[in-house]
């Protein structure tokens, strides 16, 4: 028996990025201009996959920096799969497709890093982030797709499908909607994160909490609960 897809889309869970590599490394020098470049390189490395400046400023291993970027996009892929109830972790086609989609989404990350400034002898950098609004942007289309899919389930269209085929069919539609939206990505109102530059002798870095604050702003997860007209609980298909 095929079960209808949950019409209540799961709440997007923002898993905190593991910064073992990037935040354990410090940059050298004391020029304020370096602080700005360092913060920009951290964001670019994690979300855009552009690691050159980060490697240059910190002396990090390029392969490790690229591996951390891949870890980050895989985290987003897992979050999206959880949010939409997609059972694709073992699918040899859709699992990598979701990772590729996540690269495209993060590739649209939009931010400005301001000049470093000092307040009470502490150095700060303001980061203005334009949160990617893809969850809201696609919400209506996804809701309509789920409703149509569940109607097909009720009609018995998937009675001869295996569970794997059923999950593949559903996930393909969701991924397609998201992929189309990336081409004309939308953003919410900008948010500013003030980052403290922690200095020690001739090195500097930013703290975990500041980077988490940046991470939380990259993609908007503020999707109103009443944004979707579908509020029924899962039911058995007949």
Short description:
It is built from eight helices and six strands; from the N terminus they run βααααβββαααββα. With 238 residues, it is an alpha+beta fold. It has one domain.
Record field, number of beta strands: 6
Derived from helix and strand composition plus strand pairing, the structural class reads alpha+beta
Quickly count the helices: 8
**Share of residues in helices:** 40-55%
**Separation, N- and C-terminal Cα atoms:** 8 Å
Give your account of this protein's structure.
It is a single chain. This protein has helices at 32-48, 52-58, 62-83, 94-106, 134-137, 139-154, 163-182, 208-218; strands at 27-28, 110-113, 117-119, 122-130, 191-200, 203-206. The protein is of the alpha+beta class. Strands 1, 2, 3, 4, 5 and 6 form a 6-stranded antiparallel sheet that branches. A hairpin with a 2-residue loop joins strand 5 and strand 6.
Give me some keywords for this one.
238 residues, alpha+beta, 6-stranded antiparallel β-sheet, 8 helices, 6 strands, 46% helix, elongated, disordered C terminus
